[in-house]
Amino acid sequence: MKTLKLLLALSCSLAFTAEAHRAWLLPSATVLSSNDAWVSIDAAVSNDIFHADHAPMRLDDLIITAPDGQNIQPVNSNTGKFRSTFDIQLPQAGTYKIAIASSGVMATWQTAEGERRMWPERGQKADLNDFSTKVPKDAKNLQVTDFSRRMETFVTAGTPSNEIFKPTKQGLELKPVTHPNDLFAGETADFIFLMNGKPAADVKVTVIAGGMRYRNEQQAIEVTTDKKGQFQIAWPKAGMYWLSAQYSDKKAKKPATQRMASYSATFEVLPE
């Protein structure tokens, strides 16, 4: 867990504790009918979900994918004290994917004197060509991790479409069976998690409704994927929900010895 916290902090370029702070994208709406639709997105890391009170999300790795698979650019982007914001025009009918994703390799070890070392250094990106010269061959307690992080939300203008859900086969990804912009209170949605394009079994999934600032308990929904990477979520009420999942295994390619991946997404559940 300590290694995972360090990796998440590095990939987000933010230092935050995984249990206390959560990163999220929050659209102003997810289903729009206008021929000239626009949506605004808040992006932040906070104590309470969807309540910006800690740090803004950096937008360096932001990718917005239109229904035809082309990337489009945000407008009116701004990073403030507690949150980043941007607008998206939706000129095409169909479903858009808004994502922040990053990946890399990281090594941690101890020197003979017991001092901790890390490669690459904070703020830098790893170049595997430098691994043999930057990481000592006799490093003590060496851990080399292949990590990936992905945050997403989905917005539909007009009729929903499915082209954007084609897996990239990079890191932990959500493959919807139920369209994420077709969720209703009292109904059950089906999803699949993939790791590098293959079913991800035994992934622990947590879903928390917005408004937790005004509750005494998180009221989290917790499920685990089956052997095929499948899981279901029964939506208890309408509102915005935050979904998160983490994955790890020992199937990394050298020089890495382990893989770690995180995924989070924001969904809007509509009334019955």
What this model shows, in words?
There is one protein chain. With 272 residues, this protein is mostly beta strands. The protein has a single domain (2-103, 145-269), classed as Immunoglobulin-like (Sandwich), CATH 2.60.40. It is 6% helix and 48% strand. The strands form three sheets. Strands 2, 5, 6, 9, 10, 11, 15, 16, 18 and 19 form a ten-stranded mixed β-sheet that branches. Strands 1, 3, 4, 7 and 8 form a five-stranded antiparallel β-sheet that branches. Strands 12, 13, 14 and 17 form a four-stranded antiparallel β-sheet that branches. The radius of gyration is 19 Å and the shape is globular. Mean pLDDT is 89; it is low at 1-19.
Q: How many strands in all?
A: 19
Number of helices: 2
First-to-last CA distance: 39 Å
What is the mean pLDDT?
Answer: 89
Shape summary: globular
Give the low-confidence spans: 1-19
* Gyration radius, rounded: 19 Å
What is the helical fraction, as a range of percent?
Answer: under 10%
Query: In the CATH classification, which architecture applies?
Result: Sandwich
- SSE pattern: HEEEEEEEEEEHEEEEEEEEE
Number of domains: 1
CATH fold field value: Immunoglobulin-like
The biggest sheet, with number of strands, parallel, antiparallel or mixed sense and barrel status, is: 10 strands, mixed
For the record, the CATH class is Mainly Beta
Query: What proportion of the residues form beta strands (DSSP E)?
Result: over 45%
Structural class: mainly beta
